[in-house]
Hints:
656 residues
Amino acid sequence: xxDLQRGAFTQVTDGLSxxxxxxxxxxxxxxxxxxxxxxxxxxxxxxxxYDHPITRSLYAIVLRNDLPSPxxxxxxxxxxxxxxxxxxxxxxxxxxxKGAAAAKxxxxxxxxxxxxxxRIDFAGIDQRTIALPVSPKNYVALVPGxxxxxxxxxxxxxxVDLQPDSTLPVTLYKFDLGxxxxxxxxxxxxxxxxxRDGEKLLSKQQDKxxxxxxxxxxxPADSATGPSAAPSGGPAGGALGVKDMQVLADPRAEWKExxxxxxxxxxxxxxxxxxxxxxxxxxxxxxxxxxxxxxSRADLDYLLEEVxxxxxxGHLFVRPPxxxxxxxxxxxxxGADYSIENGRWRFAKVYAGENWNPxxxxxxxxxxxxxxxxxxxxxxxGRPLTAxxxxxxxxEGTAGKSVALRVGPKADGSGARDVTVVPxxxxxxxxxxxxxxxxxLTVDKLSGGKLAYIYVPNTGNxxxxxxxxxxxxxxxxxxxxVDERFNRGGNIADYMVEYLRRDAPFNYVTARYGxxxxxxxxxxxxxxxxxxxxxxxxxxxxxxxxxxxxxxxPLIGKRTWGGLVGIGGYPALMDGGSVTAPRVALWAPEGxxxxxxxxxAPDIEVDLEPAAWRAGHDSQLEKAxxxxxxxxxxxxxxxxxxxxxPTWAKGSGGGH
Length: 656
């Protein structure tokens, strides 16, 4: 806590717990917070913290040394009608002064209520921290209501591979200190707040905003007819008619304000207070002359990109506001390449997916559909399709909907059959998986089954999941080609490198049955190489830098992008657009910014030759296999010989 009068900080928790969301009780008697006392690795820039579920409990600090615990034991002796003394004290502690001995607030000369001054006795405050009777959960927010009440927001604990791109909804609970319990208020809440007096709850569910009493919150389905629904044009107390809300905007005034706000963001967040030697104030004045000539929001984006290009740093992005949601349905895609033959559209290639994975389902390879390359697409939803028709127009607006296809082995329609599929809005994942699978099979073929192929698309959630899937499933291989080309970045990939750098077991485990198991078991102990290219950056820069630093193996390909000043956590511009201010720069212990604006150079430079690619060869991949196989011949994987079983019982006489 910081005391404004004394100008000093005082630590009030033990420093051994991960404490979040501190908030004062409205009555000024307690400080609430949620904490994990055994959090272990917490969220940071590292991948080591992934899939480490943390729950938190609710705590309160009694701020004064003359106040009783709000959870003081209650007598089990039978009392006369009315509250027991213990219950009365508990209600007073919780701020409920009805029937409880509590001091009345004073009034000033005008009759206004003067709140009681908050007093904090720091001596012995660690012994006045108490756990409140609430089940541990993943609480992400705490908002106080009236004295003795607060609202807790719980977010579900979701494995990394199932986490959505958007923020997960929360479940709200109301904790009542007087009743000593928490009750669920609302599930699936996208956003919320509590009014200053603690009476009302503002909540967002299913894209609808509702204001309702905190004591009895309403869901959107109830808000139009609920007891506190507002009359037309009336005050708060129900669903808000936000569809009809309008704002009068002056675009030129907004553009000018956002121009200066973008500079404020750099002044507040840019990691280097010297701005890489740029006179930021002078730059702001110089380019301001162009504001009067702006004709659109896109012009402002162009100007800001020109302006901040002078900072010469990666990760400085200028983004416009999101487009208004469209009701136009997306075109459907079937996950296939086509050719035109015999006056018909013919499937030249059908892309297989991971049909067990909802994120990468292939429409044409579903059970019972089984469309094969070489078959013809004859009709869509009963409408014949010929070579003169546009196949994209035939599938217009069908993404995510059931569509009937007529397919068959012959252009004249003989032997055709009808199948029902659900077209995709995007084929990117199917085509990407086909590329990865082709590379894996190529490495397996060229190495005679000795090498693993591990593709790392990014150093975020997807990359973590893919690394775990491909690395640990191939621990029987004698070496590995790690491919991080086109890596889109994310976090620091220390997790991956910790496994990749393991080069020899430190123990083996022998059991009565089965093969000996090396310890640590999560390893591919043989030689490795990493593929890099100019389209890998951010976390895709750090991964090969770490690979080289820990001497895991050679880097093969082309120099990476060169951007290791990271971003995150900025207020949006007034229209919802954004400008980033690179705020966290990585540097090496030797004292240099080793990667920013430089990239990570390969040990063996190899171009991805277009002619070879067209002929079906990946020159970078083939070089990596050759390098690792040559190293494997020089440095075979370690093979340990199990010692003979001990004879410790020999000579003991037996039978004893």
